[in-house]
Specification:
By secondary structure, this protein is an alpha+beta fold. Helices cover 29% and strands 30% of the residues.
């Protein structure tokens, strides 16, 4: 069963091409890029699998945060289509 995760990062090497990182996020499940450095991800993988897969595409000085979101406990002001995406199974 898919679980919902939030992925956030600081990419600290402006000359590095992070295209492979974004492709990796999208390859892990159903992904939605909601803010400049924030994605939502629906996947069957766990937080460790996600983190390890993404770190492979990042520099040592980049920062990564991955956490599971509980679909009944969140709040914010984002695009209505994002809320719809979150609620879809």
């Amino acid at each position: 069963m898919n679980r919902l995760y939030i992925i956030s990062y600081d990419l600290n090497n402006p000359s590095y091409d992070y295209t492979d990182l974004f492709r990796r996020i999208e390859s892990l499940g159903k992904a939605l890029h909601i803010l400049t450095s924030v994605w939502l991800l629906k996947t069957t993988q766990d937080v460790n699998q996600i983190s390890m897969a993404l770190r492979e595409q990042m520099n040592d000085n980049d920062i990564l945060f991955v956490s599971e979101l509980h679909e009944s406990n969140y709040q914010g002001w984002i695009n209505k289509t994002y809320w719809k995406w979150i609620k879809e199974k």
